[in-house]
Design brief:
This protein has three helices and five strands. By secondary structure, it is α+β, with helices and mostly antiparallel strands. α1 runs parallel beside α3.
């Protein structure tokens, strides 16, 4: 009869490796998707200045575009971040989470502007907050809201 402690240890190791592998695969696929979508939208001008210095056709007027995203970290990364908080240092797993969320939110805003016929965004603002977990607990999810004013830039500015 197998030892129950040995079975539990093997099961725990298997689940840990599975969590690490699956989390990395999901993150890798998301970054690949972000790169592909950013390349497709590379023609669009996006800036945080309040107004474009010229060349914008304001006949259609500027329209506010808002996009939001909530992305969660996997449980394994939360455990590693908890250990890192004890030892000190940069929480790379959460940095990766923030980068993914910010890029996803900006891409969604650009896609919304594109769907409405615009090709430029200005006055972009980014706000973020953590969701889930206790106040002092691990940041389980991050919510990012981006907003900006969409314009149709003339192709031949005068």
């Amino acid at each position: 009869m197998p030892n129950p402690n040995l079975i539990n240890t093997i099961l725990m190791l298997f689940l840990t490796v599975l969590a690490l592998f699956s989390g990395r695969v999901v993150e890798f696929r998301h970054f690949r998707s972000l790169r592909r979508r950013e390349r497709r939208l590379s023609y669009m001008l996006a800036t945080d200045i309040k107004r474009f210095p010229g060349g914008a056709e304001t006949a259609r007027g500027g329209q506010m575009i808002v996009a939001e995203v909530v992305i969660a970290t996997d449980y394994f990364k939360s455990i590693l971040a908890g250990l890192r908080k004890i030892l000190g240092g940069e929480l790379r797993s959460y940095r990766s989470l923030m980068v993914r969320a910010r890029r996803e939110a900006l891409i969604r805003m650009m896609e919304k502007a594109e769907d409405k016929g615009y090709n430029a965004l200005c006055n972009i603002r980014i706000e973020f907050s953590h969701i889930g977990g206790a106040i002092r607990g691990p940041m389980v999810m991050v919510a990012i809201i981006v907003s900006g004013t969409a314009y149709l830039m003339s192709k031949n500015p005068q």
